[in-house]
Request: fold
Amino acid sequence: MIKKLFTLFFCFLLAGMAYGQTRTISGTAGWRMISIPKAGATVTDISDDTAIQGVTGGSNAGDAANIYYNPGSGGSGGWTVPTNMSTAWGDGLGAIVYFYNNTTGGSSELPLDLDVSGSEPGSDVKVTITNDFTLMGNPFQSNINVDDITGNATGVGLLFGGIKSSIKVWNNSAGSYSSYNLGSNLVLAEWQGIFIEKATGLLTDLTEVTIPTSSKTASAAGISHYSKSRAFDTRSIDLHLTGEGFNDLSTKFYFTPYSSEQEDQFDGSKLSSINGSPTIAFVQDFGEGKVLLNQDARSLDPETTQSYDLEVNDAGISGEYTLNWETMKQIPSDWTITLIDREEDIYIDMQSETSYSFNVEAKQKRANVTSLRLGAVKQKSVNNSNPRFGITISPSTAVSIDDEIAAPTEFALGQNYPNPFNPTTNIQYSVGEAGPVNITVYNVMGQKVAELLNTTKSAGSYQVSWNATGQASGIYYYRLTAPGQVLTRQMTLIK
Reply:
Protein backbone atom coordinates (compact mmCIF):
# COMPACT_ATOMS: atom_id res chain seq x y z
CA MET A 1 0.00 0.00 0.00
CA ILE A 2 1.33 3.38 -0.90
CA LYS A 3 1.44 5.33 2.35
CA LYS A 4 3.33 8.37 1.23
CA LEU A 5 1.35 11.59 1.51
CA PHE A 6 1.38 13.73 -1.60
CA THR A 7 0.79 17.41 -0.90
CA LEU A 8 -0.11 19.74 -3.75
CA PHE A 9 0.91 23.20 -2.58
CA PHE A 10 1.60 26.24 -4.75
CA CYS A 11 5.08 24.98 -5.59
CA PHE A 12 4.19 25.47 -9.26
CA LEU A 13 2.03 28.55 -9.06
CA LEU A 14 3.08 30.49 -6.01
CA ALA A 15 6.13 30.62 -3.80
CA GLY A 16 6.79 31.51 -0.21
CA MET A 17 4.88 30.64 2.94
CA ALA A 18 1.26 31.61 3.38
CA TYR A 19 -0.97 31.70 6.42
CA GLY A 20 -4.66 32.42 6.90
CA GLN A 21 -6.20 34.04 3.84
CA THR A 22 -2.99 35.34 2.26
CA ARG A 23 -1.03 33.82 -0.60
CA THR A 24 2.16 35.03 -2.24
CA ILE A 25 2.46 35.03 -6.04
CA SER A 26 6.06 34.91 -7.23
CA GLY A 27 8.09 33.71 -10.18
CA THR A 28 7.41 34.87 -13.73
CA ALA A 29 4.38 36.40 -15.41
CA GLY A 30 1.81 33.86 -16.52
CA TRP A 31 -1.37 31.95 -15.79
CA ARG A 32 -2.15 30.50 -12.34
CA MET A 33 -5.11 28.32 -11.41
CA ILE A 34 -6.51 29.66 -8.15
CA SER A 35 -9.50 29.33 -5.86
CA ILE A 36 -10.54 32.21 -3.61
CA PRO A 37 -11.12 30.86 -0.07
CA LYS A 38 -14.27 32.79 0.70
CA ALA A 39 -18.00 32.15 0.44
CA GLY A 40 -19.44 34.04 -2.52
CA ALA A 41 -16.04 35.22 -3.79
CA THR A 42 -15.94 37.81 -6.58
CA VAL A 43 -13.30 39.47 -8.74
CA THR A 44 -13.28 42.43 -6.34
CA ASP A 45 -11.74 40.19 -3.68
CA ILE A 46 -8.43 40.10 -5.57
CA SER A 47 -8.60 43.21 -7.79
CA ASP A 48 -7.06 45.34 -5.03
CA ASP A 49 -4.01 43.07 -5.06
CA THR A 50 -3.39 42.52 -8.79
CA ALA A 51 -4.37 44.14 -12.07
CA ILE A 52 -7.65 42.80 -13.51
CA GLN A 53 -8.80 43.71 -17.00
CA GLY A 54 -11.56 42.76 -19.41
CA VAL A 55 -14.28 42.51 -16.74
CA THR A 56 -17.36 44.74 -16.78
CA GLY A 57 -17.29 47.35 -14.05
CA GLY A 58 -13.55 47.26 -13.59
CA SER A 59 -10.64 49.28 -14.90
CA ASN A 60 -9.40 48.41 -18.40
CA ALA A 61 -12.75 46.70 -19.09
CA GLY A 62 -12.22 46.97 -22.85
CA ASP A 63 -8.93 45.03 -22.85
CA ALA A 64 -8.54 41.27 -23.22
CA ALA A 65 -9.61 39.53 -20.03
CA ASN A 66 -6.95 38.10 -17.73
CA ILE A 67 -9.34 36.16 -15.49
CA TYR A 68 -11.66 33.28 -16.41
CA TYR A 69 -13.53 30.50 -14.70
CA ASN A 70 -14.58 27.22 -16.34
CA PRO A 71 -17.90 25.75 -15.22
CA GLY A 72 -17.84 23.05 -17.90
CA SER A 73 -15.98 22.22 -21.10
CA GLY A 74 -16.54 19.47 -23.60
CA GLY A 75 -14.24 20.50 -26.39
CA SER A 76 -14.80 24.21 -26.99
CA GLY A 77 -12.69 25.55 -24.16
CA GLY A 78 -15.42 26.49 -21.73
CA TRP A 79 -13.62 29.61 -20.53
CA THR A 80 -16.00 32.24 -19.18
CA VAL A 81 -15.22 35.81 -18.17
CA PRO A 82 -16.88 36.72 -14.86
CA THR A 83 -20.15 38.63 -15.39
CA ASN A 84 -18.81 41.68 -13.58
CA MET A 85 -16.55 42.64 -10.71
CA SER A 86 -19.09 41.93 -7.97
CA THR A 87 -21.02 38.81 -9.08
CA ALA A 88 -19.92 35.51 -7.54
CA TRP A 89 -19.30 32.63 -9.95
CA GLY A 90 -19.86 29.88 -7.40
CA ASP A 91 -18.18 28.32 -4.37
CA GLY A 92 -16.00 25.36 -5.29
CA LEU A 93 -15.22 26.65 -8.78
CA GLY A 94 -11.67 27.74 -9.47
CA ALA A 95 -10.42 30.54 -11.71
CA ILE A 96 -7.40 31.08 -13.89
CA VAL A 97 -5.68 34.45 -13.66
CA TYR A 98 -2.84 35.95 -15.66
CA PHE A 99 -0.47 37.74 -13.29
CA TYR A 100 1.70 40.42 -14.84
CA ASN A 101 5.21 41.24 -13.73
CA ASN A 102 5.41 44.96 -14.47
CA THR A 103 4.04 48.30 -13.29
CA THR A 104 2.02 49.12 -16.42
CA GLY A 105 -1.72 49.84 -16.27
CA GLY A 106 -2.05 49.25 -12.56
CA SER A 107 -0.02 46.03 -12.56
CA SER A 108 2.51 45.12 -9.89
CA GLU A 109 5.85 43.43 -10.14
CA LEU A 110 6.09 39.97 -8.65
CA PRO A 111 6.10 38.84 -5.93
CA LEU A 112 2.75 40.12 -4.70
CA ASP A 113 0.34 39.02 -1.98
CA LEU A 114 -3.25 38.01 -2.51
CA ASP A 115 -5.41 38.46 0.55
CA VAL A 116 -9.11 38.15 1.18
CA SER A 117 -11.41 39.13 4.03
CA GLY A 118 -14.53 37.15 4.81
CA SER A 119 -15.73 33.75 5.90
CA GLU A 120 -15.25 30.44 4.14
CA PRO A 121 -18.32 28.33 3.23
CA GLY A 122 -19.93 27.02 6.41
CA SER A 123 -21.21 23.74 4.98
CA ASP A 124 -20.40 21.15 2.32
CA VAL A 125 -19.80 22.78 -1.06
CA LYS A 126 -21.65 21.31 -4.04
CA VAL A 127 -20.49 22.05 -7.60
CA THR A 128 -22.71 21.42 -10.63
CA ILE A 129 -21.00 19.39 -13.37
CA THR A 130 -22.20 20.02 -16.92
CA ASN A 131 -19.51 18.64 -19.20
CA ASP A 132 -16.24 16.72 -19.53
CA PHE A 133 -13.94 19.14 -17.68
CA THR A 134 -14.58 21.49 -14.78
CA LEU A 135 -12.12 23.88 -13.15
CA MET A 136 -12.74 23.37 -9.45
CA GLY A 137 -10.87 24.69 -6.44
CA ASN A 138 -10.40 24.44 -2.71
CA PRO A 139 -13.14 26.70 -1.27
CA PHE A 140 -11.88 26.56 2.31
CA GLN A 141 -9.27 28.45 4.31
CA SER A 142 -7.26 25.32 5.01
CA ASN A 143 -5.80 22.41 3.08
CA ILE A 144 -8.20 19.65 2.08
CA ASN A 145 -7.91 15.93 1.49
CA VAL A 146 -8.76 15.55 -2.20
CA ASP A 147 -9.81 11.91 -1.77
CA ASP A 148 -12.80 13.14 0.25
CA ILE A 149 -14.17 14.94 -2.82
CA THR A 150 -16.79 12.74 -4.50
CA GLY A 151 -19.34 12.80 -7.31
CA ASN A 152 -22.95 11.65 -7.37
CA ALA A 153 -22.69 9.15 -10.24
CA THR A 154 -23.14 5.40 -9.79
CA GLY A 155 -21.81 2.38 -11.66
CA VAL A 156 -20.37 -1.08 -11.19
CA GLY A 157 -16.95 -0.86 -9.51
CA LEU A 158 -17.07 2.93 -9.66
CA LEU A 159 -14.71 4.94 -7.46
CA PHE A 160 -14.77 8.68 -6.73
CA GLY A 161 -18.45 8.95 -7.73
CA GLY A 162 -17.79 9.35 -11.44
CA ILE A 163 -14.71 11.59 -11.34
CA LYS A 164 -11.75 10.29 -13.35
CA SER A 165 -8.75 9.71 -11.14
CA SER A 166 -6.40 11.90 -13.21
CA ILE A 167 -6.59 15.55 -12.10
CA LYS A 168 -4.57 18.35 -13.66
CA VAL A 169 -2.97 21.61 -12.54
CA TRP A 170 -1.37 24.23 -14.77
CA ASN A 171 2.28 24.55 -13.76
CA ASN A 172 3.29 28.07 -14.78
CA SER A 173 6.98 27.73 -13.96
CA ALA A 174 7.26 24.70 -16.27
CA GLY A 175 4.75 25.90 -18.87
CA SER A 176 2.89 22.59 -18.67
CA TYR A 177 0.03 20.78 -17.03
CA SER A 178 1.08 18.50 -14.18
CA SER A 179 -1.08 15.48 -13.37
CA TYR A 180 -1.95 13.78 -10.09
CA ASN A 181 -4.34 11.02 -9.07
CA LEU A 182 -7.24 10.60 -6.73
CA GLY A 183 -6.75 7.68 -4.39
CA SER A 184 -3.17 8.66 -3.52
CA ASN A 185 -3.79 10.64 -0.30
CA LEU A 186 -3.37 13.93 -2.11
CA VAL A 187 -3.64 17.13 -0.08
CA LEU A 188 -4.77 20.27 -1.90
CA ALA A 189 -3.56 23.64 -0.63
CA GLU A 190 -5.86 26.56 0.04
CA TRP A 191 -6.13 29.00 -2.89
CA GLN A 192 -5.46 26.13 -5.37
CA GLY A 193 -7.53 25.29 -8.46
CA ILE A 194 -7.61 21.92 -10.27
CA PHE A 195 -9.17 20.45 -13.41
CA ILE A 196 -11.35 17.37 -12.94
CA GLU A 197 -12.70 15.14 -15.72
CA LYS A 198 -16.00 13.27 -15.81
CA ALA A 199 -15.80 9.50 -16.31
CA THR A 200 -17.76 7.83 -19.13
CA GLY A 201 -19.94 4.73 -19.29
CA LEU A 202 -21.71 5.41 -15.99
CA LEU A 203 -25.06 3.99 -14.92
CA THR A 204 -26.06 7.50 -13.87
CA ASP A 205 -24.51 10.71 -15.15
CA LEU A 206 -22.15 12.75 -12.99
CA THR A 207 -24.00 16.02 -12.35
CA GLU A 208 -22.67 17.16 -8.98
CA VAL A 209 -19.43 17.03 -7.01
CA THR A 210 -19.32 17.58 -3.25
CA ILE A 211 -16.39 19.07 -1.33
CA PRO A 212 -17.26 18.26 2.30
CA THR A 213 -16.21 20.34 5.27
CA SER A 214 -14.83 17.10 6.71
CA SER A 215 -12.13 17.19 4.01
CA LYS A 216 -10.40 20.09 5.76
CA THR A 217 -7.12 19.47 7.56
CA ALA A 218 -4.94 21.84 9.55
CA SER A 219 -1.70 20.72 7.94
CA ALA A 220 -0.08 18.01 5.90
CA ALA A 221 1.25 16.53 9.14
CA GLY A 222 -2.27 15.44 10.07
CA ILE A 223 -2.17 12.39 7.83
CA SER A 224 -3.23 10.14 10.71
CA HIS A 225 -6.60 11.88 10.72
CA TYR A 226 -7.30 11.27 7.03
CA SER A 227 -9.70 8.68 5.67
CA LYS A 228 -7.68 5.91 4.04
CA SER A 229 -10.69 4.02 2.71
CA ARG A 230 -9.86 4.75 -0.92
CA ALA A 231 -6.10 4.33 -0.79
CA PHE A 232 -4.92 1.36 -2.87
CA ASP A 233 -1.79 0.00 -4.47
CA THR A 234 -0.61 1.71 -7.64
CA ARG A 235 2.41 1.79 -9.89
CA SER A 236 3.39 4.65 -12.17
CA ILE A 237 5.98 5.98 -14.60
CA ASP A 238 6.12 9.72 -15.31
CA LEU A 239 7.09 10.40 -18.94
CA HIS A 240 8.28 13.98 -19.48
CA LEU A 241 8.97 15.70 -22.81
CA THR A 242 11.39 18.63 -22.74
CA GLY A 243 13.11 20.88 -25.23
CA GLU A 244 14.47 24.39 -25.53
CA GLY A 245 11.87 26.59 -23.88
CA PHE A 246 9.15 24.00 -23.32
CA ASN A 247 8.06 21.08 -21.13
CA ASP A 248 5.24 18.57 -21.04
CA LEU A 249 5.02 17.03 -17.57
CA SER A 250 1.54 15.51 -17.66
CA THR A 251 2.04 12.09 -19.31
CA LYS A 252 1.90 9.07 -17.04
CA PHE A 253 1.80 5.26 -17.18
CA TYR A 254 -0.52 4.15 -14.37
CA PHE A 255 -1.29 0.71 -12.95
CA THR A 256 -4.09 -0.07 -10.49
CA PRO A 257 -6.07 -3.12 -9.30
CA TYR A 258 -9.15 -1.65 -11.01
CA SER A 259 -7.72 -0.90 -14.48
CA SER A 260 -7.50 -2.82 -17.74
CA GLU A 261 -6.55 -2.27 -21.38
CA GLN A 262 -10.09 -1.02 -22.00
CA GLU A 263 -11.25 2.51 -21.22
CA ASP A 264 -11.80 3.05 -17.51
CA GLN A 265 -11.97 5.74 -14.84
CA PHE A 266 -8.18 5.80 -14.44
CA ASP A 267 -7.50 6.87 -18.05
CA GLY A 268 -7.11 10.63 -18.45
CA SER A 269 -7.67 12.77 -21.55
CA LYS A 270 -4.81 14.91 -22.81
CA LEU A 271 -5.51 18.63 -22.55
CA SER A 272 -4.06 20.98 -25.14
CA SER A 273 -1.32 23.13 -23.69
CA ILE A 274 -2.37 26.62 -22.61
CA ASN A 275 0.77 28.10 -24.17
CA GLY A 276 0.67 26.01 -27.36
CA SER A 277 3.92 24.14 -26.65
CA PRO A 278 4.84 20.60 -27.86
CA THR A 279 3.33 17.61 -26.09
CA ILE A 280 3.48 13.83 -26.07
CA ALA A 281 0.40 11.68 -25.54
CA PHE A 282 -0.77 8.08 -25.60
CA VAL A 283 -2.76 7.17 -28.72
CA GLN A 284 -5.73 4.92 -28.01
CA ASP A 285 -8.84 3.73 -29.81
CA PHE A 286 -11.62 2.44 -27.59
CA GLY A 287 -13.94 1.84 -30.53
CA GLU A 288 -14.93 5.40 -31.41
CA GLY A 289 -11.78 6.63 -33.16
CA LYS A 290 -8.38 7.80 -31.98
CA VAL A 291 -8.12 9.65 -28.70
CA LEU A 292 -5.10 11.12 -26.94
CA LEU A 293 -4.50 10.41 -23.27
CA ASN A 294 -2.20 11.98 -20.73
CA GLN A 295 -2.66 8.87 -18.57
CA ASP A 296 -3.04 5.30 -19.85
CA ALA A 297 -4.02 2.99 -17.00
CA ARG A 298 -3.52 -0.78 -17.01
CA SER A 299 -3.81 -3.63 -14.53
CA LEU A 300 -1.56 -3.47 -11.46
CA ASP A 301 -0.05 -6.86 -12.35
CA PRO A 302 -0.50 -7.44 -16.10
CA GLU A 303 -0.38 -11.04 -17.23
CA THR A 304 0.60 -10.22 -20.82
CA THR A 305 2.98 -7.81 -22.52
CA GLN A 306 1.52 -4.29 -22.61
CA SER A 307 1.97 -2.19 -25.76
CA TYR A 308 1.61 1.58 -26.04
CA ASP A 309 1.74 4.06 -28.92
CA LEU A 310 2.81 7.65 -28.26
CA GLU A 311 2.39 10.65 -30.52
CA VAL A 312 4.50 13.80 -30.41
CA ASN A 313 2.73 17.06 -31.25
CA ASP A 314 5.59 19.34 -32.34
CA ALA A 315 3.47 22.55 -32.26
CA GLY A 316 5.64 23.95 -35.06
CA ILE A 317 8.88 23.74 -33.07
CA SER A 318 11.92 21.97 -34.56
CA GLY A 319 15.01 20.92 -32.65
CA GLU A 320 16.23 18.41 -30.11
CA TYR A 321 13.60 16.93 -27.83
CA THR A 322 14.24 14.73 -24.80
CA LEU A 323 12.04 12.10 -23.21
CA ASN A 324 12.86 11.26 -19.60
CA TRP A 325 11.33 8.83 -17.16
CA GLU A 326 13.37 9.30 -13.99
CA THR A 327 10.33 8.88 -11.73
CA MET A 328 9.21 5.25 -11.52
CA LYS A 329 7.08 4.32 -8.52
CA GLN A 330 6.62 0.72 -7.40
CA ILE A 331 7.74 -0.64 -10.80
CA PRO A 332 9.22 -4.15 -10.34
CA SER A 333 12.86 -4.39 -11.35
CA ASP A 334 12.19 -7.55 -13.38
CA TRP A 335 9.72 -5.82 -15.70
CA THR A 336 11.24 -5.40 -19.16
CA ILE A 337 10.36 -1.91 -20.47
CA THR A 338 11.45 -0.95 -23.98
CA LEU A 339 11.12 2.40 -25.77
CA ILE A 340 11.02 2.08 -29.57
CA ASP A 341 11.80 5.01 -31.87
CA ARG A 342 10.29 3.68 -35.10
CA GLU A 343 11.62 6.54 -37.18
CA GLU A 344 15.24 5.85 -36.22
CA ASP A 345 14.83 2.11 -35.51
CA ILE A 346 16.29 2.57 -32.03
CA TYR A 347 15.41 0.50 -28.96
CA ILE A 348 16.03 1.77 -25.43
CA ASP A 349 15.94 -0.28 -22.22
CA MET A 350 13.98 2.04 -19.92
CA GLN A 351 15.04 0.14 -16.80
CA SER A 352 18.73 0.91 -17.37
CA GLU A 353 18.40 4.32 -19.07
CA THR A 354 16.44 7.34 -17.83
CA SER A 355 16.23 9.53 -20.94
CA TYR A 356 16.34 9.56 -24.73
CA SER A 357 17.04 12.56 -27.00
CA PHE A 358 15.89 12.82 -30.60
CA ASN A 359 15.56 15.40 -33.36
CA VAL A 360 12.28 16.75 -34.68
CA GLU A 361 11.58 18.54 -37.95
CA ALA A 362 8.34 20.39 -37.31
CA LYS A 363 5.41 19.28 -39.46
CA GLN A 364 2.88 21.70 -38.01
CA LYS A 365 2.50 25.45 -38.03
CA ARG A 366 3.56 27.36 -34.96
CA ALA A 367 0.48 28.12 -32.88
CA ASN A 368 -0.35 31.76 -32.19
CA VAL A 369 -1.91 31.39 -28.76
CA THR A 370 -3.44 34.71 -27.79
CA SER A 371 -6.15 33.49 -25.41
CA LEU A 372 -7.21 30.53 -23.31
CA ARG A 373 -9.17 28.89 -26.13
CA LEU A 374 -7.00 25.76 -25.92
CA GLY A 375 -6.89 25.39 -22.18
CA ALA A 376 -9.69 22.90 -21.55
CA VAL A 377 -9.93 21.13 -24.89
CA LYS A 378 -9.16 17.46 -25.41
CA GLN A 379 -6.10 17.40 -27.61
CA LYS A 380 -6.69 15.85 -31.03
CA SER A 381 -4.33 13.64 -32.99
CA VAL A 382 -2.42 15.49 -35.72
CA ASN A 383 -0.80 12.40 -37.23
CA ASN A 384 -2.59 10.11 -39.66
CA SER A 385 0.36 7.71 -39.87
CA ASN A 386 1.74 5.36 -37.23
CA PRO A 387 2.96 7.15 -34.09
CA ARG A 388 6.73 7.58 -33.94
CA PHE A 389 7.15 6.00 -30.53
CA GLY A 390 6.10 2.70 -29.04
CA ILE A 391 6.69 1.28 -25.59
CA THR A 392 6.35 -2.34 -24.52
CA ILE A 393 6.18 -3.46 -20.91
CA SER A 394 6.71 -7.16 -20.26
CA PRO A 395 6.20 -8.02 -16.60
CA SER A 396 7.73 -11.11 -15.08
CA THR A 397 4.25 -12.63 -14.76
CA ALA A 398 3.94 -12.51 -18.55
CA VAL A 399 6.82 -14.98 -18.96
CA SER A 400 5.76 -18.61 -19.20
CA ILE A 401 7.82 -21.59 -20.23
CA ASP A 402 6.37 -23.68 -23.02
CA ASP A 403 2.75 -22.81 -22.19
CA GLU A 404 0.11 -23.93 -24.68
CA ILE A 405 -1.86 -20.98 -26.08
CA ALA A 406 -4.34 -22.06 -28.77
CA ALA A 407 -4.96 -24.51 -31.58
CA PRO A 408 -2.93 -23.58 -34.73
CA THR A 409 -3.47 -24.21 -38.41
CA GLU A 410 0.19 -24.37 -39.53
CA PHE A 411 3.79 -24.22 -38.36
CA ALA A 412 4.84 -20.69 -37.39
CA LEU A 413 7.62 -18.96 -35.47
CA GLY A 414 6.71 -15.59 -33.99
CA GLN A 415 8.97 -12.62 -33.38
CA ASN A 416 10.28 -12.66 -29.84
CA TYR A 417 9.02 -10.06 -27.41
CA PRO A 418 10.26 -7.87 -26.01
CA ASN A 419 12.91 -7.20 -28.63
CA PRO A 420 15.51 -5.93 -27.88
CA PHE A 421 15.51 -7.57 -24.46
CA ASN A 422 17.50 -7.97 -21.25
CA PRO A 423 17.78 -10.62 -19.99
CA THR A 424 14.55 -12.53 -20.71
CA THR A 425 12.44 -12.73 -23.85
CA ASN A 426 9.44 -14.77 -24.99
CA ILE A 427 9.01 -16.74 -28.21
CA GLN A 428 5.66 -17.94 -29.52
CA TYR A 429 5.49 -20.81 -31.99
CA SER A 430 2.86 -23.02 -33.57
CA VAL A 431 3.00 -26.71 -34.43
CA GLY A 432 0.79 -27.74 -37.34
CA GLU A 433 0.93 -31.48 -36.62
CA ALA A 434 2.22 -33.70 -33.85
CA GLY A 435 5.92 -34.55 -34.00
CA PRO A 436 9.40 -33.67 -32.75
CA VAL A 437 10.16 -29.95 -32.35
CA ASN A 438 13.46 -28.24 -31.61
CA ILE A 439 14.14 -24.56 -30.89
CA THR A 440 17.80 -23.54 -30.67
CA VAL A 441 19.56 -20.18 -30.29
CA TYR A 442 22.72 -19.33 -32.27
CA ASN A 443 25.11 -16.36 -32.21
CA VAL A 444 26.20 -14.45 -35.33
CA MET A 445 29.08 -16.92 -35.77
CA GLY A 446 26.62 -19.75 -36.11
CA GLN A 447 27.59 -21.22 -32.75
CA LYS A 448 24.89 -22.84 -30.65
CA VAL A 449 24.40 -20.92 -27.39
CA ALA A 450 21.16 -22.40 -26.02
CA GLU A 451 18.67 -25.17 -26.73
CA LEU A 452 15.25 -24.02 -25.60
CA LEU A 453 13.20 -27.02 -26.65
CA ASN A 454 13.79 -30.56 -27.93
CA THR A 455 10.74 -32.72 -27.48
CA THR A 456 7.62 -34.09 -29.14
CA LYS A 457 4.71 -31.67 -29.28
CA SER A 458 1.08 -32.10 -30.21
CA ALA A 459 -0.49 -29.70 -32.69
CA GLY A 460 -0.98 -26.40 -30.90
CA SER A 461 0.41 -22.95 -30.22
CA TYR A 462 2.98 -22.51 -27.49
CA GLN A 463 5.31 -20.07 -25.85
CA VAL A 464 8.85 -20.59 -24.58
CA SER A 465 11.18 -18.12 -22.87
CA TRP A 466 14.93 -17.58 -23.00
CA ASN A 467 16.92 -16.11 -20.13
CA ALA A 468 20.13 -14.76 -21.69
CA THR A 469 21.93 -14.05 -18.43
CA GLY A 470 25.61 -14.70 -19.05
CA GLN A 471 25.43 -13.95 -22.78
CA ALA A 472 27.02 -10.92 -24.42
CA SER A 473 25.01 -8.11 -25.99
CA GLY A 474 24.44 -8.57 -29.69
CA ILE A 475 22.36 -10.20 -32.39
CA TYR A 476 21.18 -13.80 -31.99
CA TYR A 477 19.16 -16.15 -34.17
CA TYR A 478 16.57 -18.65 -32.99
CA ARG A 479 15.55 -21.58 -35.18
CA LEU A 480 12.54 -23.86 -35.06
CA THR A 481 13.11 -27.29 -36.61
CA ALA A 482 10.32 -29.82 -37.19
CA PRO A 483 9.70 -32.52 -39.84
CA GLY A 484 9.74 -30.64 -43.14
CA GLN A 485 10.05 -27.26 -41.40
CA VAL A 486 12.97 -24.92 -40.64
CA LEU A 487 12.04 -21.40 -39.49
CA THR A 488 14.54 -18.77 -38.31
CA ARG A 489 14.24 -15.30 -36.78
CA GLN A 490 16.62 -12.68 -35.41
CA MET A 491 16.62 -11.04 -31.97
CA THR A 492 18.76 -8.49 -30.14
CA LEU A 493 20.13 -8.67 -26.60
CA ILE A 494 21.03 -5.29 -25.07
CA LYS A 495 22.70 -5.03 -21.67
